[in-house]
C-alpha cells in the first residue's frame, strides 16, 4: 500500500483520571511489527509462495498456515492457488481483512485492514507436519529438540531424490551426523 500524503492519527489514551490526545504518524504505525499481524508492506509477484496467517474459509482450504502460490493480484483481493492440504490446485480468492495483534503492549488498540498472508520460502518442522512435499531441504544448525521431530522432517518427502539435508555445528562447519531424540518411555507403550 502506498500512502501519498502524511496522515496523523489521533488516539485517546486514558490514564486513571487524565485523558490526553496523542499523535502517531504513519511511519511509526507502519513500522510496528508484532506477532499475529503481517508486515505493513509486502511485495509480491506472480508465482510467489505465501502462507495464510488466519482462517478465512476452512471448508474451501483457506486455513491458517496453508501454503498457496499467488496467481492474480488486485488492490482489495488476491487470487492464489492452494499447494497444501486436500484442496491442492484449487484457486481461491483472498480478501483483505481487519486484523488486530494479540499482544497489547501499546497504549492503544491497533487494527490493520490487510491481506492475512506472509511470504513463505521456508517453514519449521512443526508447521510442515501433515504435508506431503516433492522437494525438501532440511537445515539443522543444532540437534532436534523433541521426540519424533527428525522423523517428521524427513517423512514429508515423496521420494528420497527430493531430500537434501545440511547439518552444521556451532562454527557453521558441515557435519555428517546428528542426534535423533527418542524418549524410550513413549515407545514402550506402543
TrEMBL record:
GO terms classed as biological process: DNA replication
Name used for this protein in its record: DNA helicase Pif1-like 2B domain-containing protein
Membrane-crossing segments per the record: none
Signal peptide positions on this chain: none
DNA helicase Pif1-like 2B domain ranges (all copies): 27-72
Pfam families linked to this entry: Pif1_2B_dom
CDD domains: SF1_C_RecD
One cellular component (GO) term of this entry: replication fork
